[in-house]
Amino acid sequence: MLKDKVALVTGAAQGIGYAIAAEFAKQAANVVLADYNPKVNEVAEQLNAKSAGQITGLVMNVMDNDSIKNGLDQVINDFGHLDYVMNNAGGGVLKPFAELTDDDFDKTINLDLRGTFQCMRAEINVFLQQGYGSIVNTGALGSIYNPGGMGAYNAAKNGIMGMTQAAAVDYAENNIRVNCVAPGLTKTPLNEGVFLEKILPTVPMKRYETADEVAKVFVFVASEATFMTGQTILSDGGVSVGLK
């Protein structure tokens, strides 16, 4: 149980982010659901009604430094400390490489890579002040085992893995752990339809990963894997060890 622990999850209004928040809540943690979409407040209220910890919503834009700082200040003001951060906000334009426009590339890099960088930088400064903390970033199996059409997205997610390693080494002596989880073929509101059906036959387990399943991995890496840092953990149904 994670009673009295505080977790912040970005991109938490739906999908994997919401599932991570719900898993922390199930373990009695206090959870802040952050998202650029104001509906996150309503989502947090619904989760709070069935949770042992305190669940709150936070409207935060990961591409805006002031928004990130204000959000973290609010968390510290409300709870006094912050134990875990899940940098999950992201998305991307999926097109064959030569069809990507400059705008497609910039939007994907700014949201996924720059947004994660800006959050990590601010979070690490908070953790340095309090003397500890754990960050888990969201990677992507597709950036390692590529089904195609992911040029900009791959650039961003591989960058996140690189930043994870760099920050882990920089702050290991400060009791700050930084890791990454790369979900496999996960069914979410933003990832349904033809793409999933096309990739499903390549998964050795022959099924999707659920958001609830991968959420357990995030929470374990954040809270239980206390000697792990700088790692990218694949939760992929066997894809990384053999395609079928």
TrEMBL record:
Q: Could you tell me the keywords of this UniProt record?
A: Oxidoreductase
Q: Its domain of life?
A: Bacteria
Biological processes, Gene Ontology terms: bile acid metabolic process
By its UniProt entry, which InterPro entries does this protein fall under? NAD(P)-bd_dom_sf (IPR036291), Sc_DH/Rdtase_CS (IPR020904), SDR_fam (IPR002347)
Q: Name one GO molecular function term.
A: oxidoreductase activity
Which PANTHER family has this protein been placed in?
Answer: DEHYDROGENASES, SHORT CHAIN, ESTRADIOL 17-BETA-DEHYDROGENASE 8-RELATED
- Family membership: Belongs to the short-chain dehydrogenases/reductases (SDR) family.
Q: What is this protein called?
A: Short-chain dehydrogenase
- Give the organism the record lists: Lactiplantibacillus fabifermentans T30PCM01
